[in-house]
């Protein structure tokens, strides 16, 4: 089992920045690829970014490419999502997830999920 706890969400104005963190406990964190997904009200949960177990490969949704950066610190069992130039359409609950395979883009590839953290971007 892997337990995931997200933090760092909040209310920010358009153009601002936030950094989300996700701390993992349980099985060996460094053996998992990690991903961030988001879900806005009335919409499907969608892929945002993913990172391989080593951090050497990263994968981004087109909507966040160039604005968001995913990173990880295996010594701290933590994955981060740095979000810059935030837009109102980035408003959603953000979830981190762990994948025993690679840094995929599909929800069904992920084995464990956190409870989510709310990000609200005002215009």
Keywords for this structure?
123 residues, mainly beta, seven-stranded mixed β-sheet, four-stranded antiparallel β-sheet
Describe this protein's structure.
The structure is a single chain. This protein has 123 residues and is mostly beta strands. The chain is 0% helix and 51% strand. The chain has strands at residues 2-7, 10-13, 18-26, 33-39, 46-51, 58-60, 68-73, 78-83, 92-99, 112-113, 117-122. The strands form two sheets. Strands 2, 4, 5, 6, 9, 10 and 11 form a seven-stranded mixed beta sheet that branches. A four-stranded antiparallel beta sheet has the order 1-3-8-7, with no helix packed on it. A hairpin with a 6-residue loop joins strand 5 (46-51) and strand 6. It starts with a strand and ends with a strand. The mean pLDDT is 96.
How many helices? The count is: 0
Topology order in helix (H) and strand (E) letters: EEEEEEEEEEE
Measured distance between first and last alpha carbons: 40 Å
Largest sheet: 7 strands, mixed
Poorly predicted parts? none
> What average pLDDT do the residues reach?
96
Beta-strand residue percentage? over 45%
Outline:
globular
- The beta-strand count equals 11
Helix vs. strand class? mainly beta
The percentage helix is: under 10%
Radius of gyration: 13 Å
